[in-house]
């Protein structure tokens, strides 16, 4: 579904990603772990061109998104993204947050979009919040709203950029539960996370990133129980206590 | 000289209150025109400054820097003398020339207000909108601008207050504003201080009540945050 070829990204003289080549198959659930500054978020943000790669290609459904003239907005509609800081729209109600893009971009009738939004809200336990403004929501509720907002576009893949890092500890569980539910239903997912237990439990594959490269990767059992790369061992030794 | 102050003040008011009201009207009209068109032009300039097209953003930046870096009085003179020469077919009145100069001047300041208001909106909002598939224009119109307006409106109100005071410079060309009326009254009654006090009081009432209204409005915006 997504094919990354020789992807590099620099910010000025700082090389953040170095020549990454990787493939994401339909239905895969990939956790990206690694020390901070290793390029995890930048890697994820390059997939929908929020960061424009310095060199290399990102193929999505066979189309090289880095080519000039590609209608990136169209492709982004099929790639949902959830951010660390939620980024819900504070000037819109919960319902408007969800229906804005489908009505505007997919020309869905408003009533259909709202019916679908209600279904999604029920799925994440926010049925009673449809008419609220986001300022009345807790962090965990905002993040669930952000997930629903992305899902309302019926994406083929979901990108999560540290979705629980800005949450109070007691709200992490509710957000992870929503992601887990998505994954069970077969959503292709990439998630940058520091929740090692979650990565181990839900992913089909774990990528360990270090200094802009994918230093090691494999099924979660292998990465967590039997890491080969000394950097992976060192990192896991620090975070798994 | 102060023994006659209050009696003189009374005489000035009694004889010329109509002129002062008329002057206040012109001052408000001039200020309103300035802020209205200054806002339109300033918003366009702000979008130009944010443009990725170098000549476009360069022009807007240069415009803002030059206007803000030269005195308003000089700009008033320049437009007052230059516009009728440049566009004789329009037959511009004094008032129009002065108004145009004020609009040009104010637009540079409004440009910075709008730009700051847009920049104050968290960039995450833009990123979230773009990942949903909205293009740059849709993101600006539906997501960024509605939030930026909350930052911009109170600052625009303050610009209005500033403009009310700055229009006094327009009296250099006798366009009928408050300060023009002051000169008229001073000339006919040979009184300097008393009419000045009257005009000052009117300016203060205008600006003070406007500031209070803006504060009240700002508090209401905050509540709806």
Give an account of the 3D structure.
The complex is a heterodimer of chains A (241) and B (225). Chain A contains nine helices and ten strands. Chain A is of the alpha/beta class and 241 residues long. The mean pLDDT of chain A is 93. Chain B is built from eight helices and no strands. Chain B has helices at 5-50, 54-68, 72-86, 94-119, 123-132, 136-166, 178-189, 193-223. Chains A and B meet through helix 2, strand 6, helix 3 and helix 5 of A and helix 5 and helix 6 of B.
Mean pLDDT of chain A: 93
Number of strands of chain B: 0
How would you sum up the major sheet of chain A?
Answer: 6 strands, mixed
Q: What's the structural domain tally of chain B? A: 1
How many distinct beta strands of chain A?
10
Q: What class do helices, strands and sheet pairing of chain B give?
A: mainly alpha
Task: Describe the largest sheet of chain B.
Answer: none
Tell me roughly what share of residues is in helical segments of chain B.
over 70%
Strand order of the largest sheet of chain A: 6-7-8-3-9-10
- CATH A-level architecture of chain B: Orthogonal Bundle
- What is the oligomer described by this structure? heterodimer
Q: Structural class of the secondary elements of chain A?
A: alpha/beta
Could you state the CATH homologous superfamily of chain B?
MetI-like
Of all chain pairs, the largest interface belongs to: A-B, 25 and 18 residues
Helix content of chain A: 25-40%
Radius of gyration of chain B: 21 Å
What is the H/E order of chain A? Answer: EEEHEEHEHHHEHEHEEHH
List the helices and strands and how they pair.
The complex is a heterodimer of chains A (241) and B (225).
Chain A: E1 2-11, E2 14-24, E3 29-33, H1 40-47, E4 55-60, E5 63-64, H2 72-76, E6 79-82, H3 94-105, H4 110-123, H5 139-151, E7 157-161, H6 169-184, E8 188-192, H7 196-202, E9 205-210, E10 213-218, H8 220-225, H9 230-239
Parallel strand pairs in A: 3-8, 3-9, 6-7, 7-8
Antiparallel strand pairs in A: 1-2, 1-4, 4-5, 9-10
Helix pairs in contact in A: 3-4, 3-5, 5-6
Chain B: H1 5-50, H2 54-68, H3 72-86, H4 94-119, H5 123-132, H6 136-166, H7 178-189, H8 193-223
Helix pairs in contact in B: 1-2, 1-4, 1-6, 1-7, 1-8, 2-4, 3-4, 4-6, 5-6, 6-8, 7-8
